[in-house]
Amino acid sequence: MIIEHFPGDAMPLLGGYQEGSVSEEERELLDVANGAVAFIYFTGQLYRFDEFRTSGTAGPSPAPSFVQVTEFLERIRRNASSAEEKEILLAVMDALAFVEVSGQKKGFEEYLHYWETDTLPPVIAAFKTDSEAEAWLDEQSVPPYGARVLIGNQYHSVKRSRERREPGFLPIPTLKEFIGRHLEEGLLPAVAAFDSKEDAESWLAKTPPTTRHAFITIGGKSHLAVYQENVNHRALYPLTLAEQ
Predict the structure, then answer these.
(1) Number of separate domains in the chain
(2) Is the dihedral of CA 184, 190, 194, 195 positive or negative?
(3) Is 89's pLDDT higher than 70?
(4) Which of 9, 139, 148, 167 is most buried (CB neighbours < 10 A)?
(5) pLDDT for res 57
(6) Does residue 198 carry a pLDDT above 90?
(7) Which of 155, 172, 189 is at the close of a domain?
């Protein structure tokens, strides 16, 4: 399996199992498995995971924290009809072991909280300018391929791999899609109203970590307030962003 293709192979496969005739408990187990694949990819750890698998550290024993998940995946794997499917499922079990062995269980649990709730996806870094982002990427000994970052308050995906140096980052419409979905579904009442952007920024600076996002008004116009705790990044976005 080419490591860059791992998420694209594993996530649809697991999603297909979830759409099948499985119990609610089994769907929850598949959520954890799918979340592990997404966590590794969107935090830019595909190459670290590949090294984990090829170093001999990974093995058939399930990660202690994910015994139920890996046992369920092993049952599916035994009944899988193709060698490719069996290989993908083994890689997913290795992904769970990687999360535990690398000491990222807490970070993964926090990611699952995002995975299970309606909020903006986390990022691994935030930069004010393209040049700052490129300088950071040049310093990485292993390209964090697939990772989400913020550049100038906008979401980007790291596209630099070991095989391809350019482009370093690709803009992705995460914010536009998030705002657009909420506008379609109907906004919840604003949690606060401010006369100026400065007042709103002062309020956001004091926002507790538990608040990942909130809708507010500034001068009567709706905005999205966002706090990314892990990178200590706060930002305000007008909802007109969805129209651009």
Answers:
(1) 3
(2) positive
(3) yes
(4) 148
(5) 62
(6) yes
(7) 172
Q: Are residues 151 and 230 in the same domain?
A: no
Contact partners, residue 56, CB within 8 Å, separation at least 6: none
Q: Which residue has the tokens 């095989």?
A: 163
Residues 16 and 82 in one domain: yes
Residue 77 to residues 4, 18, 49, 83, 160, Cα–Cα distance (Å): 22, 15, 20, 10, 33
Distance CA 177, CA 157 (A): 15
**Mean pLDDT, residues 105-129:** 89
- How far apart CA 33 and CA 57 sit, in angstroms, is 19
For residue range 173-191, what is the model confidence (pLDDT) as tens digits? Answer: 999 999 999 999 998 899 9
Same domain for 84 and 54: yes
Query: Mean pLDDT over residues 54-75, rounded?
Result: 79
The reply to whether 74 and 128 lie within a common domain is: no
Q: How many whole angstroms separate alpha carbon 9 and alpha carbon 193? A: 45
On whether the pTM is more than 0.90, the answer is no
Domain of 136 in residue numbering reads as 119-172
One domain for residues 73 and 48: yes
Query: Looking at the predicted structure, is the pLDDT value of residue 34 above 90?
Result: yes
User: What pLDDT score does 179 carry?
Assistant: 94
Asked if residue 64 and residue 106 are part of one domain, the reply reads yes
Dihedral over Cα of 186, 189, 190, 195: its sign: positive
* Contacts for 7 with CB less than 8 Å, ≥ 6 apart: 37, 38, 40, 41, 46, 146
**Cβ proximity of 198 and 218 under 8 Å:** no
Helices (H), 21-156: 24-42, 46-54, 67-79, 83-101, 105-116, 130-139
Which helix (H) or strand (E) is 12 found in, with range?
A: helix 6-19
